Amino acid sequence: VFLRENLAVGEFIGRFIRVSNVPDGVFKSSYKAFSRKLLKLLAHDSRIVVVSSLVLVGYLEAQLRDTVFCSRNIPQTFQCVFNVLVLGDCLMTRHIAADLLKRLVVSDTPNVSSTPVITSTGKDLINYSYFERSIQALASLFIQLDPRSEESLKIYDIFLSFCSLNQMRIPITMAILKCPPKEQRLTTPVLSMCSTAQMTFDEAILPDAPLKAVKLLRYVLKEAIESGAHAQDYVPSELILRLIEDNIKTPVETASELVSFQCKRITEGLRLAETVSNDDDLRGDILDVVTAPLCAHIVESQMLSNPIVPYMGRPIAMRNELPPSWSADGVSIVLELLRVLAALKDYSKLHKDQYWKLLKDDRLVPFVAYAIAFGNHELTYDALLLYTHCAQVQEFPTKWSGINNINQK
C-alpha cells in the first residue's frame, strides 16, 4: 500500500524526523538506508511507486532533495510526471501525480498578495520542448475520462492552478486551443469543458465539476478573444449562450446544502458573460441573454435574502453570529453583476440605466464594505476595482463613511 495520502505521509515523516528520540547514530544509519531505497525506487517499473517516491524525495534533507530536483534532472522529472498523469493506470496514480505536479510548479509559501506564485523548479517548464505536447495530452483527458470522476476533477485542478500563474496562463490556454479533435469522438477539450460545464449538480455528482469546467472554459475563451480570434471558432455560439443563460438563472435555495455552489454558478456565468462580451460577434447576443431586467432580478434577490445586509448594518458589538458561508458567495454575485453592467452599459441604454440604478442603491454599500473588510483576496480585489465605479455617485462616500462608523463602534 503505497501512500494513500502522499503529502500527508510526507509531512508525517518530516515531523517524525524533527521530534524523533532515536539515538543519532541509529537514526542516521536508518535514514541513509531509507534514502538509498527511495532513490532506487525511482527506477521502478510501477508508475505509482515512481511518482510516490518523487513525492517523498521532496521531504528528504535539502542536499539530497536538491540533487534529485536539480536543474539537470528537473526536465526529466516533469516529463515523467506528465507521462504518469496521461497514462495513469489507476485513480490513486493520477491523484498522487496531480498533487506532485502542482507542488512542483505552484508555491505554497505565503506571500503578501496571497496570489499564487511560480516555484523555482517550475519557472522554466514552459520552455521545455515537450511542454505544449504534454499539455495537449493532458487536456485530451477531458475527452477520455468520465467528467463525473475524481480523476477528471484532478485534471481541472492542475489546469486551474497553472492558469492562476501569470507566466503560464497564455501558454497553457493557447496549447489547449491548438488541440486537434480526437478522431474517435470528433470533439476537442474545449467542447468537452463546455459539455461538463452544462451539467446539473445532480448529473455531475461532484458539484465542483461544472464550476471548474466553466472557470477553465472562461480562461481559454478569454485568451482566444484577446488573441484576435472569436469564441465561436472553438465553441458554437448557441452553446456558449445557453451555458451563460443556464448559469445565471440558477435558483438560489438558501435552505439547500448546495446554496454555495448555486451562488458560485451564477457568478461564473456572469464572468463568462463579461469575457464573451469582448467578442464583437457575440456582444449583441449577450445583451439579449443577460437582459437588464434579469440583472435587476439577480441583484434584488441578493439584496433581499443575503444576510450580509443586516450583518454589516449592525455595530460590531452586536454581531454575535457570523453570517452563513454562502453569504460571501452571494457578495461575489453582486460585485460581478456590476462588472457585467459596466461592460455592457455603452452598448445598451437599458443596461446603462440599470448600472446607474445599482450604483445609487444604498443596499450596495454593505456588499462592497464586506468584500473589502472580510473577503478573501479575490473578493477584496474585485471590490476595490469596483469602488472606482461607486465613487462616481456623489453620495457614495457619505454612505461608505456611515458603514465605517458602524464598523468602528
TrEMBL record:
Name assigned to this protein: Protein CIP2A (inferred by orthology to a human protein)
One Pfam family, short name? CIP2A_N
List each copy of the CIP2A N-terminal domain by range: 29-399
Q: Domain of life, per the record?
A: Eukaryota
